[in-house]
Design a protein that fits this description.
Helices cover about 40% and strands about 15% of the residues. It has about 375 residues and is of the alpha/beta class. Helix 4 links the parallel strand 5 and strand 6.
């Protein structure tokens, strides 16, 4: 019995010793395990940073790179914007018009206003590469306010005088709303062609937003959510191949557009008809992160104001043109904006889509209505 007790004691002591050895071994392995997890975390973070962070924009005037050939105007922060001018000489002009291009466009895709109308009204028309596009310097701090400043600096740099007209296209419309908010005193009049609507504007009726949102493709819904909630991931999401992306992405094809827009895309080979080789070469090749994708982030961010809350203190002529079959910009929501702002002249074009600038009579009708502010222009059919 004593032997059994002694054996038992030895066994217990051995067990305690064995336990202490195991605990010591586990304790020594714990820092190694934590260190391994830390290293793994660092590697994952680095990998995500490499994947998510967009490449730096291509430099202008670099060897074998895009060369600056266009005239440019310096902005207040030192950047330069490239522009293109048509129409009568600046010294003899009666009216100055600045056109603001849309997603993936450039200064080369000017609103094709007829020579007859230009001469009739003495028009000097300027289009420009928005920041990050074409031969304009990018702006890593680009915002609605900075784009508004760019338009004002461009007008002042070209000696347009105290007031000028503005015509915007598609997503370029956010700059139009910004001008009405921050620089209404500079506007002689403004026309917005199919201006993109932000689904997160709080003044929009929730029921109408829901209806319009449900009509968007899954790719558009996901892309806009990323741009709104996770803007830092926009470049990665818009360039990845696993999930559906926005209708405006090249990999999405043209099926998300109405039939009229599909035909325009087939004929033009790009977002807008009358595409030039110069546009295809320049457009957004410097950096989509600082041109097209930056547009998405700004357009679908949480704005500091909403168009429905704007006033029109100078009684500026304001026109919105919208196609009923526009799948990118729902007419349903455009009507809500127009109805909230009685000083807007709203022109709805039945059976037409998003690319209104490609309609043969559209550029002249928009310009003439803006210059004459004709209420009868609402009845124009195409």
């Amino acid at each position: 019995m004593a032997a059994e007790v002694k054996k038992s004691r030895i066994s217990a002591a051995g067990a305690r010793s064995h336990t202490r050895k195991n605990e010591s071994s586990s304790s020594s392995q714990l820092p190694l395990a934590l260190g391994g997890l830390a290293i793994l975390g660092i590697l994952v973070s680095v990998l995500l940073t490499v994947v998510v962070r967009p490449p730096s924009p291509k430099l202008l005037n670099a060897p074998n790179g895009l060369q600056v050939t266009a005239p440019r105007v310096q902005m207040r922060d030192g950047r330069f914007l490239a522009y293109k001018a048509v129409g009568v000489d600046r010294e003899n002009a009666k009216h100055f018009i600045i056109t603001i291009h849309g997603y993936g466009a450039s200064r080369h895709l000017m609103l094709p206003i007829s020579k007859e109308l230009i001469e009739e009204h003495g028009l000097h028309i300027v289009s420009f590469d928005r920041a990050g596009y074409g031969q304009s310097d990018h702006n890593p701090k680009r915002s609605i306010e900075s784009d508004v400043d760019d338009v004002e600096d461009l007008a002042d740099g070209l000696s347009f005088g105290p007031k000028f007209y503005v015509i915007t296209t598609s997503i370029g419309g956010y700059t139009g709303w910004g001008l009405l908010k921050y620089k209404p005193e500079r506007l002689a009049g403004i026309a917005l062609s199919a201006p993109v609507v932000n689904y997160w504007w709080p003044s929009l009726p929730a029921s109408e937003v829901k209806l319009a949102w449900e009509k968007q493709t899954i790719g558009d819904q996901m892309s806009l959510r990323v741009a709104h909630y996770f803007p830092a991931l926009t470049y990665w999401y818009m360039t990845q191949k696993w999930f559906p992306t926005s209708s405006v992405s090249p990999q999405s094809g043209i099926k998300a557009f109405c039939l009229e827009d599909q035909e325009i895309l087939k004929k033009s080979g790009a977002v807008l008809a009358r595409t030039t080789p110069e546009h295809l070469e320049e457009s957004a090749q410097r950096s989509p992160a600082e041109s097209t994708f930056r547009d998405l982030i700004i357009m679908f961010s949480s704005w500091s104001f909403t168009p429905m809350e704007l006033t029109n203190p100078f009684d500026t002529p304001v026109h919105i043109w919208q196609g009923t079959d526009d799948y990118l910009v729902p007419a349903l929501l455009q009507r809500c904006i127009a109805s909230a702002l009685p000083w807007i002249q709203y022109h709805e074009l039945p059976n037409h889509g998003h690319f209104l600038n490609s309609l043969p009579s559209f550029p002249d009708n928009v310009t003439r209505a803006l210059l004459t502010d004709s209420k009868e222009a609402k009845e124009i059919l195409f």
